[in-house]
Amino acid sequence: MSGNKKIFLVFLVFLAAYLIPFQEFFILFQGWFPDFSMTPAGQGLKESFLMLSEYAHEHVLFCLVPAFFIAGGITLFLDQQSVIAYLGPKAKKWVAYSVASVSGTILAVCSCTVLPIFKGIYRRGAGLGPAVSFLYSGPAINILAIILTARVLGFEIGAARTIFAVVFSVVIGLLMHLFFRKEDQKRLDDMGMFQKTDSEKPRKLSQNLIFMLSMIGILIFLNWAPSKGSLGFWDTIYQFKYWISGLFGIVLLYAVYRWFKKDEIKEWTAQARDFGIQIIPLLFAGVLIAGFLLGRPGQPALIPQNWITSLVGDNGLFSNFIASFSGALMYFATLTEIPIMQGLIGAGMAKGPALALLLAGPSLSLPSLLVIKSELGWKKTLVYAGIVIVLSTLVGMGYGAFFS
Fold this sequence. Notes:
- The protein has a domain at 3-78 and 197-202 and 261-403.
- It has 21 helices and no strands.
- α20 packs across α21 (378-403).
- The chain has helices at 3-19, 22-32, 34-37, 40-77, 80-87, 93-107, 114-123, 128-140, 143-153, 155-179, 181-194, 205-222, 232-239, 241-259, 262-294, 305-311, 317-329, 337-346, 351-360, 366-376, 378-403.
- It is mostly helical.
- 79% of the residues lie in helices and 0% in strands.
- The protein starts with a helix and ends with a helix.
C-alpha cells in the first residue's frame, strides 16, 4: 500500500475519533446495557474511547501535525554535520547534553509531541545519549509547568522538580550512552557510509534556521496554555497566541516560497506524512489501552484510581515505585499533571511519591513507549523506561524522607 493510501486511512481514523460523539453514544450504551456499563470493564471501554476523542481534539492538529513537519524538516534540511558536531558521539559531553536539554526546554511539549522531533534528530546523526536526553527534557522541563508546580503545589516540590528534571535529562542520556555505546557507534558508522554530502548547500544556514524556527514558533504558541493562576504575562501571551502563531506561519510561507524548490517541498511533505503513518496508529492504540486501564483524571476505569491513591500514602520504597511506574503508563497532556497531582495530594498522596510521579509521568506514557519501541527496539526502550522509573523512585524516597 502506498504512503498516500496509508495516510488517507490514518486520516479517516482521526476523523472518526474527532467527529463521533462518543459521550452521547455511551449514554445510549448505558441504557442498552446498564449492568455491563457499570462494571470496571464497561467503564474502561467508555474511558478508552472518550480519551481517544479528547486526544484527537486537543493534540493531533495543533501538536502532532506541526511536530511531523518539524521532524521532516530536520531529517531533510538540517545540516547533518551540525547535528553530529553538537549531538554526535564525538561531541564534547557538556556541549551535547547542554544542547539536548536546552532544546527540549524551549519546545515545552508533551511526551507524544516530542517523539517525531526525537526521531528526526536521531536519524540525522545524533548519538543515542543526547537524543534520549532531548526525549526526556522536552516534556519534563516545561518552564510554565515548573512555575505552576511551585505556585500550586508549593515552592519545595517546584524547585525539586526543576533541579531533578535537569539532572535526570543528563544522567539518563549518559547511562543510555554507556549501556549501548557499541551498538550506537555501529549505527552511526553504518549511517556514515550512506549519508549525503553537505558540500552543495542550496540555502544559507540562516535561511534553514529561519525555516526551522518558524515551525517551532508555530508549535509553541499554538499549544500555549493559560496559567490558571495570576501569571499575567503568560495569560497575555495566551490571549494573542493565534496571532503570534499566524506571524510565524507567514514567515514559514515566505521561507518555503523563496528558498525551497518544488521537489524539496514535495519531499518534505512526504517525510511529514511518513512520520504520521509511523506514529499516529501507535499513539492511538496506546491511548485506547491507557484509557481502558487507567481512564481520564477523576474518571473510573478498569483499575480504580483510589487503588493507586491508597498505595502511595507514605514515603516508602513501594509507594514511590508505584507512583513512578503508574506515571510511566499514564498519559499527561501539557500542564494537566498539576491539577491531577493537586487532587492526588488532597486525597492523601505523600510528598515523595508526588515528586516521583512528576518526574516520571510527563516524560513517559504507554503511547509514547510504543512509538519509542518502533525506533529503538524493545531493549533500549525498556532500559530507558527502567532508568526513569528507578531514578524517580529513589529521588522520591529521598525527598519524602527529608521533607516529611
